[in-house]
Amino acid sequence: MDAGVRDYRTGSLKGLKAVVEESDYDRLFPKERYIGKEWLQKEYDLLWPRVWQWVCREEEIPNVGDFYEYRIGDQSFLIVREKNDKLNVFYNTCMHRGTRLVEGAHEFGGPGTFNGNKAQFDGKITCVFHGWAYDLDGELCHLPGAKDFAKGMVKREEVCLRKALIDTWEGFVFINMDMDAEPLLDYLHPAPDNLKDYNIGGMRIQRHYTTVLPCNWKYAIDQFQEGYHVWATHVMDLNNVGAVSTGPGGRRVGEKKDGNSYPPPDKVGAMTVYEQFDLHTNFWEPHWQLTTGLPPRVKLGDLSDEDYPTPREWARKAIETMVVQNRVAQYELDHFDGLEDLPLDMLGPDFMLKLRHEACAARGIDLSHLENQQMFGFPSEHRLFPNMLGPVAGNSYGLFRARPNGDDPDSMIWDIYFLFNYGDGEVPPIHYEFIPDWKDYPDDRMPPSFMQDFKTTPLFQQGMHSKGFPGHRYCSQEQNVIHTQKLLDQIIGME
Ligand code: FES
Ligand SMILES: [Fe+2]
Hints:
By secondary structure, the protein is an alpha+beta fold. Among the domains are: 1-51 and 200-227 and 272-285 and 378-495, Naphthalene 1,2-dioxygenase Alpha Subunit, Chain A, domain 1 (Alpha-Beta Complex), CATH 3.90.380.10; 53-176, Rieske Iron-sulfur Protein (3-layer Sandwich), CATH 2.102.10. Helix content is 22%, strand content 20%. The strands form 5 sheets. Strands 11, 14, 15, 16, 17, 18 and 19 form a 7-stranded mixed beta sheet that branches. A 4-stranded antiparallel beta sheet has the order 4-3-2-5, with no helix packed on it. Helix 9 packs antiparallel against helix 10 (330-337) and helix 10 packs across helix 11. Residues 94, 96-97, 99, 127, 129-132 line the site of FE2/S2 (inorganic) cluster (FES).
């Protein structure tokens, strides 16, 4: 620990912050934190119990009596909607003999409801072992054989469900096991201010995928807060998953030069902007025209190639690709299909802006207050420490959550959420899906760029175990990763 820096291995994390310094580029960061079982255990002991963790969205538990089970390591929590729209969070364990009370509907947790339970247990939190039951506020309301317990062992205040802290921001529900933690909005600062223009609270989850990746959970967080890998993993597609970056709908479309030469690394990753705050980071693309899926300087009427010979076919393919990537809503594609004439003289990116504004306005979604820069692609990708991040733009939010998987530092649980704005009465039911092996997943349903990232995960993880690998060295395009590492230095230690 540097002299003068508070040791955050005890107490609350209030005041914790990291600043990236020049000397950090001269340092090797230890690989043990990605592969060591001891380090993983320290994370369970020192990190996860003291941070605000995003657990679910409010729309996943809309009714009184609904719950969401959230797991982190061997801890399970019940987020419960009580009357008057109050949310509670309880440790998911019966106060009699510790039985886990309920499980969510999906792999690794998920939503569920206490409504419809049998007889007197309807709407109650019930233990299947001996039938203790709790009200939605956690109070014990049914104690079978009460007179057989010693009086002092079943005092009301001692047998109610144990609580953690709970709060919400823009429809996201967060919990914290540290009862001394700072308030959620203080913890999230400055993200709530930075993201206030986007109607995040009004967005709704369209899809929630969960998969298991053969790597440490921090790898996934690192991957999504640096642009340095984009050139090799995505533009060049060096792992042969199937490049999309330079075709219709791709992020670098129009950037391909001289037939086979692509922009050099410093033109891709270095074009993005990296920002660090006390606890969180941001990562964004300042050239909005590059993120609309159409070439930045080409008129709509000039879009054509061998596969998509007319402007309508070419543009449609681009929009369709972006629907799969969660960068465009299905209703925007439908709106495009309903257009009789295309403004062929308009530059592609300008057309995409117009399409988005019009498709949303037709559903009562007003995006007119947003700058062009805020409408597409990656105007903001905040990483909310420690494990939540993703790009928000215009009317979409693609979100990821990374969690360790049990006691294996080489495995992680990866949640992918796609959110959109919807018109009244048009909100679709949430599609939940567990993907046991992403390699078998149809690539027209998952962005190929995700597959490209996933494919490097075992290589990265296995390679770090090599006795020939001394530790990580980072460049300025990876400064947000350094920021995360420096927070961990203070919470867990430098090794
Ligand atoms: S362990 Fe829950 S009622 Fe016995
Ligand atoms: Fe990537």
